[in-house]
Amino acid sequence: MSQSTIRRHCGFCNQPRPFVKQTPAHLTHFILTLFTCGAWLVVWIPIVLMGVFRPYRCEFCGKAKH
Questions:
Q1: Structural domains in the chain (count)
Q2: What is d(CA 26, CA 15) in angstroms, rounded to the nearest whole number?
């Protein structure tokens, strides 16, 4: 897993803060998909969909970005 970072204003901290969320390692999943002749897509697609809906969280207080 890797991280995606954005900088936004945190309503809880009341300061501009970095917000992070975990993202899948797409290269690893692509290689696994190739080695398994596409069978790994059954695992990779739900992981990507969960990542899309996962909220960014303030790195300091942990509150989700709205």
A1: 1
A2: 32
Domain annotation covers residue 65: no
Structure tokens at 17: 């803060």
- According to DSSP, the residues that pair with 23 across neighbouring strands are 2
20-57 pLDDT tens trace: 999 999 999 999 999 999 999 999 999 999 988 999 99
- C-alpha span between 38 and 13 (Å, rounded): 45
* Residue 33 covered by a domain: yes
Domain containing 40: what range? 2-58
Residue 58: is it exposed, middle or buried by C-beta count within 10 angstroms (0-12/13-18/19+)?
buried
